[in-house]
From TrEMBL:
PROSITE patterns recorded: PROKAR_LIPOPROTEIN (PS51257)
Keyword annotations from UniProtKB, A to Z: Signal
Biased composition (Basic and acidic residues): 43-52
Statement: the UniProt record of this protein carries the keyword Signal: yes
Residue ranges, compositional bias (Low complexity): 153-168
Ranges of compositional bias, category Polar residues: 21-36, 137-151
Name the record gives this protein: Putative YkwD family protein
Species name: Anaerosolibacter carboniphilus
Entry superkingdom: Bacteria
Region named Disordered: 21-55, 124-168
Amino acid sequence: MKKIYILILAIGMIFSACSPTVEPQQKPTTPQQGATKQQQNKKVQDQDRETQESSIFEVGEVRNCRITTESAPVKAGAGNNFNTVATLNRDDVVKVLDQVGSWYVIQLDNNQVGAIEGTNATPIVKEGENKELPKAQQPQTIKQNQTNQLPKQAAQQPQQNQRTQNNVQATPNATTAKLGSQEQQMVDLVNRERTKNGLSALTVDSEVARVAGIKAQDMVDKDYFSHYSPTYGSPFDMMKNFGIEYLTAGENLAGNSSVEKAHEALMNSSGHRQNILSPDFTHIGIGVRPSEKYGYIYTQMFIGKRK
């Protein structure tokens, strides 16, 4: 009897050892927990959007200048030791062909080439002139010989400018534009910052605004975030191809969920803040486009021009 009991006990122990262990059931996720996870994901996504900003700045080529002194001697070369070949008066506007040190190489109305000191003039933009030409039509840079003597005549520039490679046409004298609500809100925020810092408000340029919108849409369509577009090149190439004249230019980019957040992020970044508060800029254009990745793409284009 004792042997039978031991045998039954041993068989029971074997079955107990081979039986699968039953894990305690996990508590089902409550709707409240699921909502919290979604909120956390959205918070992370919003944080990612707030980090997308970029800025760039360029000093443009001087193509025209206005005389700011009572008279300005035009020298045969870039230096005061050259003979005076003509004299310009205050507010005369001349075409600039090149810069040699602190001197402007200029072309007079009679096509004679000379040089004036940069301290006697200020760069300006002449609307509707000097549109970007194909390379084959661009006037060659005036070269000086070893004595810094300039040639007496320069080849006359072609009179007929061709349409740019992107088949776009500029709108001359574009100084006002009807903006969307977000674009106008961003312009107002920029000008509020400038006013607080003793700077003049920027004027909306409708052509710059149009180009900014095209750039924002291009970033959405081609899924990139960069100043360099696979379609248009740099923002400065793009402006020139659209016929926009400038002395200085800059671009700020932001990917964010709202105008306020984008503006705050830009102002907290030194490069972007420098563009927004630059005394060198006079006009602005804003482009805003919806983006699945960022919420919205914001393109701020700045230019400086004096007439």
